[in-house]
Design goal:
Blueprint lengths: L1 H16 L1 H25 L2 E2 L2 E2 H30 L2 H6 L5 H29 L8 H28 L3 H17 L12 H8 L2 H14 L7 H28 L1
Antiparallel strand pairs: 1-2
Helix pairs in contact: 1-5, 2-3, 2-5, 3-5, 3-6, 3-7, 3-9, 5-6, 5-10, 6-7, 6-9, 6-10, 9-10
């Protein structure tokens, strides 16, 4: 665990010292909430009895986790291409620690971005529930989801041979996980064939649970089921990243 902390600390130190990355993260959060959220609210005042800003904000926060995970994969790929990963491998630390260090730093950045989005969303009219325990549970679910998608991004980074190749492969996961979910629209308006795809998407369960826990929007899926799916997604993402990472370093 100490090795995981050291790698996490290294990445977070670089993050806090990078003015460009900090500004980019903050501006991306503000632009998504203000331009997209407020613009869509102008067309749709409420969804299923809830104001649209409260409805869509969990989906925008989930998008931040996806975007943050993509950035975490780029960090690992860059270290692979520059030979830094080989220096980790000769150290007496488990290979899982390398991946957990990357995944945890990525999840931390996603949580920071989610916090910024949450504050801006509340200022723009989103209504939080009056249950602090629900807020904490929603943050824990978001952290698990960020770790799961970080695992997918790190798995792709482990087998990619270039930055462009990485972006081409990760694009296959990124947008479908967002748009083939209930992040932007309710399940009830989707055609049957698309609803089947949406129900196979872990983003659907995260967004539905965060809406219910943090914003008081009535849940359309059982909360325990959502927790189980997000937890399973985090475990499978980490397992996939470790498997492909080990295969790549053995070549």
């Amino acid at each position: 665990m100490h090795a995981t902390y050291v790698i996490w600390s290294k990445h977070m130190t670089k993050f806090w010292r990078s003015t460009e990355e900090l500004l980019g993260l903050a501006l991306q959060s503000v632009l998504w909430v203000v331009l997209f959220g407020v613009g869509m609210r102008g067309m749709i005042s409420n969804v299923e009895g809830s104001d649209y800003m409260s409805y869509i904000l969990p989906g925008i926060i989930a998008l931040s986790a996806l975007g943050g995970a993509v950035g975490g994969g780029i960090v690992l790929l860059d270290e692979r291409l520059r030979g830094i990963t080989k220096e980790y491998l000769v150290a007496p630390i488990p290979r899982l620690s390398i991946l957990l260090g990357n995944a945890s730093s990525t999840a931390t950045k996603a949580m920071i971005q989610a916090a910024i989005m949450l504050v801006v969303g509340v200022l723009m009219g989103a209504r939080l529930s009056l249950n602090p325990l629900g807020w904490i549970a929603a943050l824990l679910l978001l952290a698990l989801f960020a770790i799961g998608f970080s695992g997918l991004a790190l798995a792709v980074a482990a087998i990619s041979r270039s930055i462009m190749g990485y972006h081409g492969m990760i694009f296959l996961f990124n947008l479908p996980l967002l748009f083939a979910s209930n992040a932007l629209y309710p399940l009830s308006v989707l055609p049957g064939w698309m609803r089947v795809i949406v129900m196979l998407n872990p983003t659907t369960y995260l967004v539905d649970a965060v809406r219910a826990l943090a914003f008081g929007v009535p849940a359309t899926l059982p909360l325990l089921l959502s927790l189980a799916v997000v937890l399973l997604f985090a475990v499978l993402g980490t397992w996939l990243a470790l498997s492909l990472f080990q295969r790549s370093v053995l070549k």
